[in-house]
Every structure is written in structure tokens, then in C-alpha cells.
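Lecture 7 notes. Example A: sequence first, then its C-alpha cells.
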Amino acid sequence: MPRKRKTLLEDTSNQFVNLTTNETIKEKTIPTICKSIRKYRERLGIEQKELGKMIGVVGNAVCNWENGRSRPDISLIPQICSVLGITLYDLFDIPDPAHRQTKREKLLLDKYRSLNEGHKYAVENLIRSLNHIESVEHMPAIKELILFENSLAAGFSTATDFDDKGEPIYLYSSREVELADCVFSVSGDSMEPEFHNEDLVLVQRFPRCEQIRPGEIGAFIIGNETYIKQYQDDGLHSLNKNYKTMHFEDSENVYFIGKVLGIVDQDCDIASNDDIAKYHSISSGDDD
């Protein structure tokens, strides 16, 4: 019996027939990575030679990749992804675990899609409210204080009449931070070795704090200058022995601002920009 001759209609998508020899030949399978390079290159609308130049290879290399004659060296993979603007998951055409939905998530999404617009709006509001609650629960506690850095004006009548209104400073909560009312910047070396130039100190303002006792560190106004000094009965002392005691009878208009509670750790105590943004969002009630 003569062998049945195959027709083109019998060919499958991955085979073709040599009409001269009547042999079925399997088409060469092109690796997924090679198909992806062609797909995303064409999506960007760039030529093979242009892509090769951007990656640092000759244009023929890209042609060979896309035709399945060769594959890119593994060291080129990150650069190929960067140039094409895709992920490794895109390049190898595999699902991204971050985008997978659980059966429960799919079920909830299907139920959401079946709702009318009014009920969808109610669900969205509920989700925003729950996100807001979780943001509050997981966010570190922050306290907003005032940082005074500039000189104080002369001619005030009480220790609270500052010309400089200061600027906000946001600190992670601690016992000392919660007790503080404001922050001052230290200038000079008169309180070394405990306090250094440009240190930030936490101050609890009078009359919220008790009257200062001998041996305690306080913030004071003398004339129109602010000082961090140790209070003693005979005057204000510097911890640095190179500085003389400031006796009360030698100065006019000496005012007690408040007690120094501690030093701000500028690497750990100052809130990050991200946490400050969350703090403002929660404070304003902005759930979006």
C-alpha cells in the first residue's frame, strides 16, 4: 500500500513538512528568554542593533538571541532587564509571586465586583479606615516639639516672650521626650565634656517643671542670650573649668527657661522623613 502523503493541513504549529521528501520536521524551539527579548524590544520600538548598543553587544548577538541560535550570557541579564524595563519574571515568562492571588483573595475580589457602585464605595471606605487604624498601630510614637536655634530678643518681660518662634522637630517618643516642651541647640564648649557644641538638648519649660535645684542643669536667659548652665546658689556654673562662674549680681535680667532633661541622639531620636509623613497623615485624618 502506498504511503499516505501528508498535506499542509495536517501540519501542527510546531512542525512542517518537506514536500520533496515528505518528511515531517520539527521546528526548532526558541527559548522563552529569547522570545521575551524580541517581544519587549518590539514593544519599545527599537531595532536589534540599537538594543545591542544599549547592552554593550553587537547587533548580530541580539539577532542570534531572538532566533534561538544562542542565549545571552548570564552576566548580561540584569542589564537586559534594565534596558527593556522588565523584571526577571517578565524575561523568563514566569508568574511573579508578589502578584499571585490566593483563593480567598480571588473570592473576595469576585464578590466585590458583583456589588453595585454604592456598596463598592462603602467597602472602599471600610478598607481605608482599616488601613488607617493599622498605620496608627504599627507606627512608632512621635512627638512634635519646637526647636529654638536663633538668638532671643531683648526687652522681654518674662522668660516666655521669645521673638524667635522656632521650628518643628519630630522625635521618637521616650520618657524624656514626653516630658520635654522644646529643644535648644548648644553653642560653644563651656559645658564640655557632658554637652558639646551643636548638641540638641531637651528642655522642660518652667512653670511646668519644678524650680531648679542646686546641681541641676538648666536653660537660662541672660540679657538677650541663652545659656546651658549648672545652677548653684552662687550663680551659673560651666562644666568646663576654663569658664568662670556667672554670678547673679554681675548680670541683669536673668531668667530661668527650664530644666535640661537630656541630649537628643541625632542619629536615633529624630524621626525619619517617612515616619514624619505618616505622622502628618494620621494627624490630619488623611486616609488616602
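Example B, a different protein, same format:
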Amino acid sequence: MGARRHLLLAGLLCTLAATPALAACPQELAVYEGADGSGALEFAGGGAGMLSEMRLLYDGVEPVTVYLSHDETHDRTEAMIPLNCPEGDVTGEELAACLVYQGTVYTIDGDGVGLLPPPGEAAATQVFLPNLLPALWNNPQFGDAAPKEPPAEIFKLSGCQE
């Protein structure tokens, strides 16, 4: 029994060594799962350390692209979900008509609510997208592409893309 226990322990240690430590994962490569079990969130770096977008992933639905921008005035990351926007140059009025969600991306940890870490820094343990549920759930702009379950607003760190 002792040899079997050592084999199991060695296998576990090899598995852990092959998995990148989540704490060392940079924010731009972080992967999250919905805290309530629905959906996932995957960051996609824009190259050269830029944090340009993330994707919301739901079973049976095409990924929903969320565009990120830095609000210089308030020094925070803003998320926008345009849906079925016209191609090419879009006016502010056209963008407003096809924007289904816009809000600040927050983090939640033991100290409370904070702002999203910049690219290159360790990923937040939880990400909070306030009011995402009412913006996406049963939104007619999605048609048949809408999430089948109510979308989560809080996502827990579950992996790293590299």
C-alpha cells in the first residue's frame, strides 16, 4: 500500500508541476468560470502587453466578444459588448444603438471590490461585471444566439492560457 500511495503522490506532483500556477498567470491570459457554474470568461491579450478584449463563453452559443478600453479620466477598465453593429466606420449614434452592455470591470478579493490589474500583473481571483445579467438575459438583439442560462456576473479564476 505504501508504494501505491507514493505513486499517487508522485502522479499528483507531476500534474501540479505541469499546470501553471494560477497566481502567476498574467491578467491578459486569465480564464474564469462563472461563480454560479454558468458560462466562462477568457481574456485575450492584444499583443505587446495590451488588454484588448475578452470572450464570454456559454454552452451551445457562439462566443460573445467583450471589448476592453482604458478610461483615462477614471483610470479603470471599461467593457463594451456591441452586437450586430454595422460594418466599417460606425458613428456614436450607431454604436449606442447596437451596444448591449457597457460597464466597469471590477475585481473581488478578501479586501473588497477593486479595479482590474493591468497587463503583466497577476490575474485577479474574481472578476465582477455588474448588470451583465439584465443586459444579456433574454435580450432580443441576440435572437437565437442568446445564452440558454442566466449569465453570471461574478467569475472565478480557473486557469491560464499559457
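Note on Example B: The chain has a mean pLDDT of 81. The chain has one domain: 32-160.
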